[in-house]
Amino acid sequence: MESVPCILCGSIESDPVVTAVDRLDASRGAVKGRGADDGASANRFTVVRCRRCGLAYTNPRPTPQEIGDYYPHYHTGRHGQLRRLEEWYQRRQHREIVRWMAALRPQRGRLLDVGCGAGDLLLAARADGWRVSGVEPTPDGAARARDERGLDVIAGRFEDAPLPATTFDAVVLSSVLEHVHDPVADLARARALLAPGGLVAVISLPRFDSLQARFLGPRWLALDLPRHLYHFDDRSFRRVASASGLRVAATRAYSKRHSAAMLVSSLFPALQKHRFNLDVGESQARLAAKKGAYLALVTAARPYARLEASLGRAPQMSYFLEPID
Predict the structure, then answer these.
(1) What burial class does residue 23 get, using C-beta atoms within 10 Å of its C-beta: 0-12 exposed, 13-18 middle, 19+ buried?
(2) β-strand 30-31 against 316-323: which pairing, if any?
C-alpha cells in the first residue's frame, strides 16, 4: 500500500469523505461474508478529498505492483443465459458509443481503444467505418482480441505501449480512467497521440457528485474500492483534463439504462452482477433466484434512471475532449 499526495496540486492535506470495504474479495476469488458497510471487515479503504483543490481519491491505495491482486477471476461460463443478456446489453452500449463518436467525428479515421479487453468496442467501431487498434494490459484479453477477432491489439500497459504520436483521430478510454494511478499522465499521452482535429473520449466515468453517490455513500457500487483510485466530480475532472492539455468539447449521460443496474446493485449488494460470476459455492437454484430478482429490479428501476439522466444527474458521464490550442 502507498499513501500519495494530490495528483493535481501536490498537497498532502486532505479530509476523509467515505470509507467502505472491498465488495469483492479478490484475494480469495469470493465475496466478503458480510455487508458492504457493516464495519466487520478489515479490508477497508478510504476516499479522501484534497483540501486545496477538491480532487477525491483513494488513499492509501494499492501500488501498481499490488493492484492486480484486487481484481477477481470471473467464471463467466457458469451462467449462460445471463451472460448472453449481458453481451447483448454491452453490444447495445457499444453501438451507442459509436453513434456518439460518429456525431462528433463523422469523417471516422483511426481509433485507439485503451483498455480494450477482448475488443468488443473495437468491433463496433470497425463496423462503423473506423480503422481500429487497441491496448490491453491483460494477456488473455489481448490474445482473444488478436487471435479470435483479428484485431490489432497490443498486450501491455498504455504508458509502455509503442504507439506513434499524432496518429489517431480518436483515443477512447472506456471505464478506464478511474482505475489508473496517474490519470493526468494517461490523458496527456492520449493527447499526444491525436492527429490534428482528433478527439479523446472518456466513457462511463463515475460521477462522485451524482445523486446516487451522495445518497448511497459507502453502498454506492461505483466506489469499487480499491480498484477505483480516483473519484471525479464534474469540476475536478475538468481540472484533470486541463492539466493534461485538454478541454471538454461535449458530454453525454451514460446511460439511462446502465444507471438502473448500478442503483439496484448498490441497494442490494448480494445482487451485484459481478458476484454472479464469482465461485462462492452457491447452489444453482439460489443463483437463478438472485438473477431473476436482479433483472426484475433493474426493470423496475428504469423510470427512475431515465428521470435521473434527464435532470443531468446520471451517476456516470462520458466526456469528449479536444486539445487546448
Answers:
(1) buried
(2) unpaired
Closest to 291 (Cα-Cα) out of 59, 18, 86: 86
177: which 3 cell numbers? 480512467
How is residue 166 written as a grid cell?
499524432
**What value does the CA radius of gyration of the chain take, rounded to a whole number of Å?**
19
Q: How confident is the model at residue 75 (pLDDT cuts 50, 70, 90)?
A: low
C-alpha span between 156 and 170 (Å, rounded): 20
pLDDT confidence of 256, banded at 50, 70, 90? low
Report how far residue 273's alpha carbon sits from residue 3's, in angstroms, rounded to the nearest whole number: 31
Listed by start position, the domains of the chain span: 14-104+164-323
All residues at 6 or more sequence positions from 202 whose CB lies less than 8 Å from its CB, including other chains? 173, 176, 177, 187, 237, 318, 319, 320, 321
pTM of the model as a whole: 0.90
Instruction: Tell me the fold of 14-104+164-323.
Output: Rossmann fold (3.40.50)
Which set of grid coordinates corresponds to residue 272? Answer: 451485484
Q: What share of the chain is helix, strand, coil (3-state, %, to 5)?
A: 40, 25, 35
C-beta separation of 23 from 36 below 8 A: yes
Helix axes 120-127, 80-104, angle to 10 degrees: 50
Cα distances from 300 to residues 213, 249, 257, 261, 311, in angstroms, run 20, 34, 11, 10, 19
Query: pLDDT tens digits, residue range 122-139?
Result: 999 999 999 999 999 999
